[in-house]
Amino acid sequence: MIATLTIVRYPVMFGWAGFLSMAIFRLPLWFSQKISFYKLMGCGKNGTFDKSPDWRQWALLTISKEDHAGFTPSFITAWWQFFKVEQWELQLLPIEGHGTWDGQQVFGQLPKQTDYDGPIGILTRATIRLSQLGRFWSHVDAIAKQMAGAEGFVTSVGIGEVPWIKQATFSIWESKTAMKGFAYKMKEHAEVVKKTHQEKWYSEDMFVRFIPLKSKGQLNGKLPFEIKL
User: Is the pTM for the entire model greater than 0.70?
Assistant: First the structure.
């Protein structure tokens, strides 16, 4: 299966169209036989992992079989064209991971580790317990700043289904070694990961690694990540 993550950014005057699309797009996605799973999501301020929403930037994640990779219902693509959005599309091959999304292993049964060590995309998502919202958000800024300055970090975007509660981060790294250097060797990040388990911050979580297959379009005037052949 292939996952397609599309991040779109609306012109200033059309931010309302992005908000409206979160309801309207459900129908063509639900009826599509080429898509096995989808999520419509908002983005944090300026596309980052932030409590304040960015009313101009939105995300669509779809999963389909390889022969339908990159498929987006025509109604949605026409909507994006009409409102003149910036559009960054990534096609991703899931290779490693664990956890569930809405109780499903949406990317199939994946091994926890492989030998792959090339450019890699990382999706981390969680449903945060209401009782732990304060604990979770009090650690976000420090970790985000550390990640942005980490060796091998390329780019990231904060996305979510439900503001403050159902949150996710998608990041791209030059290699799995670089990603692990941040995840396991940065003291503050390692401590936060430990707390999430000890204090049971999440009622559900998922961690998946991908090989980026295609990257096209632009966001804020540039292509955030270029695949070098």
Answer: yes
